[in-house]
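Please go through this chain and its backbone structure tokens and walk me through the local backbone shapes. Keep your notes short.
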Amino acid sequence: MASTCQQGLTIGELAGGAGVNVETIRFYQRKGLLPVPERPWRGIRRYSARELGRLRFIRSAQRLGFSLDEIAELLVLEDGSHCSAAREQAERKLVEVRARLADLQRIEHALQALVQRCRAARGTVRCPLIGSLHDG
């Protein structure tokens, strides 16, 4: 791929290098997260190592739970000189993640209690799980 990078990558090579499919790249382009390179006359578009790095940046940020809108904000800070702004965004994301974890723990405890009630139910008693869902 090193020699291809000097000439530029095709969209398929870019997708392969980042572990995504071509439609993902096109979607990111429509969202304004990746630039669309010029198409030379009778040629195909070529992508540089910079676009590959940007695509990997986007994928890494997604794995950390950042939305595409949040990633767009981070891409503005991509040069690394706005550390405090990036930290603030990460702190907001951390608050969201902790809130989701708390919600998941509440769900876990509720399901655990229902499973225990189901195990204890005997005979012709209405299923506690199904009954709970009907009752809201």
